[in-house]
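Hi R.,

As promised on Friday, here is the backbone we talked about, encoded as structure tokens. Could you run it through your design pipeline when you get a chance and send me back a sequence?
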């Protein structure tokens, strides 16, 4: 009989569970120096296919974001995700950018507390409980 190298059913259920808290100092922040191209926060608005997506950047510009090969199978990016993007050095019109990092929900909450994110649509991403409370209750007495 072969050896079980991957664990049992409980291991598979808890593989995405985060046990430790997030260290804010290790998060990649959008800091731009004069020597390197500008980094910015962006929100994914539309998936275009072929590792490309439409991003709404923090300066209210829509740009095309390209997922590098190292992120293709490891970090799945969906609509309304928050990512860190960087301009390409060879691009003069600044319409394309590379995606450097995808932030999960806990990291987005910490960045929102720090006051770095200036998106208006971020609130729907963080507070899912607000949408659940807005559901209208049906009153059977009015029938």
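Update: got your reply. Pasting your designed sequence below so it's all in one thread:
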């Amino acid at each position: 009989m072969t050896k079980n190298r991957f664990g049992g059913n409980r291991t598979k259920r808890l593989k995405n569970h985060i046990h430790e808290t997030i260290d804010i100092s290790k998060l990649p922040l959008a800091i731009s120096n004069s020597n390197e191209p500008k980094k910015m926060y962006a929100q994914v608005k539309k998936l275009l296919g072929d590792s490309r997506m439409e991003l709404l950047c923090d300066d209210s510009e829509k740009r095309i974001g390209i997922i590098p090969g190292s992120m293709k199978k490891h970090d799945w990016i969906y609509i309304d995700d928050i990512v860190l993007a960087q301009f390409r050095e060879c691009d003069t019109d600044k319409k394309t950018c590379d995606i450097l990092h995808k932030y999960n929900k806990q990291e987005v909450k910490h960045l929102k507390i720090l006051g770095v994110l200036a998106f208006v649509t971020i609130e729907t991403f963080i507070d899912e409980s607000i949408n659940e409370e807005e559901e209208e209750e049906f009153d059977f007495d009015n029938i």
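One thing I noticed while checking it: The radius of gyration is 20 Å.

Thanks again,
M.
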